[in-house]
Amino acid sequence: MLENLTDKLGSALRNLRGVGKLSEENMADALKEVRQALLSADVHFKVAREFVATVKEQCVGQEVLKSVTPGQQVIKIIHDELVKLLGEGATELEDKKPLRIMMVGLHGSGKTTSSGKLARYLAKKRDYRPALVACDVYRPAAIDQLETLAKNEDCVFYGDRDEKDVVKIGKQGLEAAKQAEANLIIFDTAGRLQIDENLIEEIKLLKAEVLPDEILLVADAALGQEAVNVAKHFHEAVGCTGIILTKLDGDARGGAALSMKSISNVPIKFMGTGEKSDEFDVFHPDRMASRILGMGDVVSLVEKAQETIDQDEAERMAEKMRKADFNLEDFLSQMQQVKKMGSLGSLVGMMPGMNGVEIGDEEEKKMARTEAIILSMTVQERRQPRLLRGSRLKRIANGSGVQVRDVNALLKQFTQMQKMMKMMRGGKGRKMMKAMKA
Ligand code: GDP
Question: Per UniProt, where does GTP bind (predicted)?
Answer without folding.
Answer: 105-112, 188-192, 246-249
